[in-house]
Amino acid sequence: MFGDIDVVFTNDAYGKKLAKLLNADWMPIDTKREMIPISATKIREDTAANWDYINKYAKRHFQKRVAVVGPESTGKSTLVKYLANAYKGSSYVTEYGRVLSEVRDNTLTEKDFEAIVLGQNTNQLSLVSR
Q: pTM above 0.70?
């Protein structure tokens, strides 16, 4: 399944048994958790408090997304800024439709709404990849 494994690196004692089962050497790393003082158990117990220890690629599996919709000039942009500040580690993307509307002198066509959806999605994807 994994091919030949020569060495198993872990900071938990189970790594020794795993290495033996795989016929590999065991290399214990930071077993006292001095370099990185966290365990997966602690992260699972309080994800928010230990957010900074989670790999950026794994974070997206824990994140919630909120879409704020409504008519123009009702405070959506202000609201999302407040929400991002209220929730540690949160961020937001600006409203792409406002940008396009301003460029088009507030005259949008049905076709422009496709561009708004694509632009908004692109902004969201760029945020996730940071």
A: no
Phi and psi angles of residue 33, each rounded to the nearest 5 degrees, phi first: 55, 50
Q: How far is CA 5 from the centre of its chain?
A: 30
Question: Mean pLDDT across the chain, nearest whole number?
Answer: 87
Residue with tokens 């900071």: 11
Range of the domain at 15: 7-53
CB burial of residue 19 (10 Å; 0-12, 13-18, 19+): buried
Separation CA 14–CA 11 (nearest Å): 9
Structural domains of the chain, count: 2
* Pair 24, 8: CB distance under 8 Å: yes
Question: What tens digit of pLDDT does each residue of 69-119 get?
Answer: 888 789 988 999 999 889 876 888 888 888 888 888 988 998 898 999 999
